[in-house]
Design goal:
The protein is built from 5 helices and 8 strands. By secondary structure, it is α+β, with helices and mostly antiparallel strands. α1 crosses α3.
């Protein structure tokens, strides 16, 4: 099992395990209406068994070094997840995905978690660049990217979904050199 990443005195990231399934399902279920607006996979997670199936898949992806995924904890409370997916070893790139419990938004939790995962991606995954793809309507996710120093590089058509409808998005990128 990989060690947790301590972000600060309150926040840490813990690589996902199968044992996280009940707590993650509960958190997704509590935030279902909001998450379902932005994340197409939410409708596929209807039970702890569904979450467990996803975590098994994620762990296989992690073993293949195609994904790194962690739960986000704030003062010992599970509050969301963050990951680096679509890891391309040849080009040394990856994409960041994240979601956070509504009750913890606006507190800088995701900004701090993102900074930690950037450091991890540079030092442990040996990536040079990360991307975030945010739907044009998802202002909160755009703000996370911009606050962290990502720059908008292109509009991509129909790659995200808003309320289960294809949506254009902006790809934000950040070079990780010097981390």
């Amino acid at each position: 099992m990989q060690p947790k990443l301590v972000v600060d005195q309150h926040i840490h990231l813990q690589p996902v395990t199968e044992a996280d399934a009940p707590a993650l399902f509960q958190l997704v279920d509590q935030n279902r209406v909001n998450l379902d607006t932005w994340l197409p996979w939410v409708g596929d997670i209807e039970s702890v068994a569904d979450e467990l199936g996803f975590l098994k898949y994620a762990q296989q992806q992690m073993a293949n070094q195609e994904l790194w995924m962690a739960t986000i904890w704030d003062d010992h409370q599970l509050v969301g997840t963050i990951d680096v997916h679509n890891i391309d070893d040849l080009n040394r790139t990856g994409e960041v995905g994240y979601w956070l419990d509504e009750a913890f938004r606006g507190r800088g939790v995701m900004h701090r978690a993102l900074a930690a995962i950037e450091q991890y991606a540079a030092s442990e995954l040996e990536l040079d660049q990360l991307s975030i793809i945010a739907a044009h309507e998802n202002v909160a996710s755009q703000q996370v990217a911009l606050k962290a120093g990502y720059r908008a590089v292109e509009t991509v058509s129909g790659v995200t979904s808003v309320s289960h409808q294809p949506q254009d998005a902006t790809r934000y990128q950040k070079q990780l050199g010097g981390m």
